[in-house]
Amino acid sequence: MSNLASPTIQSITAALVNTFELEKSLEVHEPIYESDGEFSAADASNPTFAFNIKGAGDPPAAFVLGSNGGGLAIAGVVDGKTIITNVKKSQGNKRRNDWEVSGMNYPSAAA
């Protein structure tokens, strides 16, 4: 149990993922009006995946800020570089440990 002089998050032995969100986005390059009166083709590049995972219990030890999440496997995301950008832990009177981890995957980046 935490004492009032130095509050800390207490550990429990189980972990549960409550929600998982995955968003894919592209950088869109608008068509350019050419000198011959025609538009160039529009282009999309630089795909990225943003993810957010919320759970209860202790977050997996591999979810360290700035890391690759210990080889975090996300369905549909198989290439590139994954970076954990946010790790949040909380605890209250009526709830045990809650945690939230978010990050980005850059499929075009070298792993």
Classification by helices and strands: mainly beta
How many structural domains in the coordinates?
1
Strand content: 35-45%
Shape label: elongated
Helix share, percent: under 10%
Q: What's the order of the H and E elements? A: EEEE
Radius of gyration, in Å, reads 20 Å
Instruction: Name the poorly predicted regions.
Output: none
First-residue to last-residue Cα separation: 41 Å
Average pLDDT figure: 79
Largest β sheet strand count, sense and barrel closure: 4 strands, antiparallel
Please report the number of helical segments. 0
* Strand line-up in the sheet with most strands: 1-2-4-3
Counted beta strands: 4
